[in-house]
Amino acid sequence: MSMTLIVLRDKYPAMFVNDEKIKGLVKQLTSLLAITIVIINNVLQPILSANFSCSTKTLDCIKLKAIVFKFNV
Prior knowledge:
This protein is mostly helical. The protein has helices at residues 2-7, 20-48, 59-71.
């Protein structure tokens, strides 16, 4: 998804708007959007879906697992 946005950043804004200023703004913000998508998919999604593993048995890791289990996140 991120690579598609980066590759098509000159073309996809025209599908939604006609204003050149907004198209330029969308082109500028596309990199930030792509980075955000990567961060969410690689960092937050495993935690939110409880598909994560801690490499050590630190107190923080144990607490995080307990929170995920308790709230069934």
